[in-house]
């Protein structure tokens, strides 16, 4: 069952951000922010929300990116940088001063953007400016899952990653319209494609049924089409982060499934080496893990997550 709430933030002229927090915020605990993958919602982290060990150890805050779930904004155009800023403002609005950030697929490169925008060093140097823009938000560490930090490049494809532009362009074209589309919803082909590459073709029928229903309900009508289209454009045309990884100063634990159908372990092995100024940057592979790793292998993810945050929380 979904328990999504919303909170108002200032970015992009006013944004309503969707989020889930399974328990009331407890300032005595560390906080984990979680960011879902393309056209899913905060329900991607249902397993984590139901894990009593996690809930007792930390605050769980799943934020839905722009274009996803219950998040709405006045601007039809937005980028992953906008979501990173929005997420930091959500933290402020909920009085979360610092957090670790976990993100799946697109959520992975959003975690890096958040770390770049809200490091302790920058907060000290530009305190007055950031107090206005981002107040006291600080990222303690990041946990990317099943991601790539490059753009959709030939380099990543040569390492076994998917051909995102080719796979997404037809969908983007189909979702582009000069006239309103009040009857729009994503078709079964799109929903099942996303489920196949994310959860695995052999995922349980209950998982498939839930996500077909959820994806369709989240993207209804002309507004739903516009949000889905922009989410897909962002995925196809995002900027790469490889040159910026030098500037990430927090610990990094990258979790990647060996059966990830979108981004390869070989690519992760190259990119993790670029976090040269992080106090720790490790790649943990999960045997038989799918692209949506926290859903396919929640026990492996949760165990590694607890060890990581307990080690690095200050």
In brief:
43% of the residues lie in helices and 17% in strands. The protein has 14 helices and nine strands.
Describe the structure.
The chain has 314 residues and is an alpha/beta fold. It is 43% helix and 17% strand. The protein has helices spanning 46-49, 52-57, 80-93, 106-117, 120-125, 127-133, 154-158, 164-174, 188-199, 205-218, 221-237, 265-271, 293-296, 298-312, and strands at residues 5-9, 15-20, 30-35, 58-63, 72-73, 98-104, 138-145, 252-257, 281-286. Helix 3 (80-93) packs across helix 4, helix 8 (164-174) packs antiparallel against helix 11 and helix 9 (188-199) packs across helix 10. The longest helix is centred in the last third of the chain and has 17 residues, at 221-237. It starts with a strand and ends with a helix.
What topology emerges from the helices and strands here?
Elements: E1 5-9, E2 15-20, E3 30-35, H1 46-49, H2 52-57, E4 58-63, E5 72-73, H3 80-93, E6 98-104, H4 106-117, H5 120-125, H6 127-133, E7 138-145, H7 154-158, H8 164-174, H9 188-199, H10 205-218, H11 221-237, E8 252-257, H12 265-271, E9 281-286, H13 293-296, H14 298-312
Parallel strand pairs: 3-4, 3-6, 6-7, 7-8, 8-9
Antiparallel strand pairs: 1-2, 2-4, 2-5
Helix pairs in contact: 3-4, 8-11, 9-10
């Amino acid at each position: 069952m979904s328990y999504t709430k919303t909170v108002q933030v200032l970015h992009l002229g006013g944004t309503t951000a969707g989020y889930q927090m399974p328990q009331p915020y407890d300032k005595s605990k560390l906080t984990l922010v979680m960011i879902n993958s393309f056209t899913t919602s905060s329900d991607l982290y249902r397993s984590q929300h139901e894990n009593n060990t996690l809930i007792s150890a930390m605050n769980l805050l799943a934020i839905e990116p722009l274009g996803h779930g219950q998040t709405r904004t006045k601007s039809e155009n937005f980028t992953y940088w906008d979501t990173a800023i929005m997420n930091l403002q959500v933290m402020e609005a909920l009085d979360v001063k610092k957090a670790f950030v976990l993100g799946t697929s697109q959520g992975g490169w959003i975690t890096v953007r958040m770390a770049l925008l809200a490091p302790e060093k920058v907060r000290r140097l530009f305190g007055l400016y950031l107090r206005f823009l981002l107040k006291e938000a600080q990222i303690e560490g990041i946990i990317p899952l099943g991601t790539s930090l490059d753009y959709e490049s030939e380099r990543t494809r040569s390492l076994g990653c998917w051909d995102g532009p080719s796979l997404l362009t037809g969908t983007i074209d189909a979702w582009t319209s000069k006239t309103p589309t009040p009857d729009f919803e994503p078709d079964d082909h799109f929903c099942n494609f996303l489920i196949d590459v994310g959860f695995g073709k052999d995922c349980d029928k209950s998982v498939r049924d839930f996500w077909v229903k959820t994806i369709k309900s989240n993207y209804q009508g002309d507004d739903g089409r516009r949000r889905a289209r922009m989410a897909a454009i962002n995925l196809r045309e995002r900027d790469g982060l490889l040159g910026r990884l030098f500037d990430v100063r927090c610990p990094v634990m990258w979790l990647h499934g060996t059966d990830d159908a979108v981004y390869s372990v070989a690519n992760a092995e190259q990119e993790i080496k670029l976090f040269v100024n992080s106090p720790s940057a490790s790649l943990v592979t999960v045997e038989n893990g799918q692209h949506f790793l926290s859903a396919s292998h929640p026990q492996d993810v949760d165990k590694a997550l607890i060890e990581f945050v307990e080690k690095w929380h200050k």
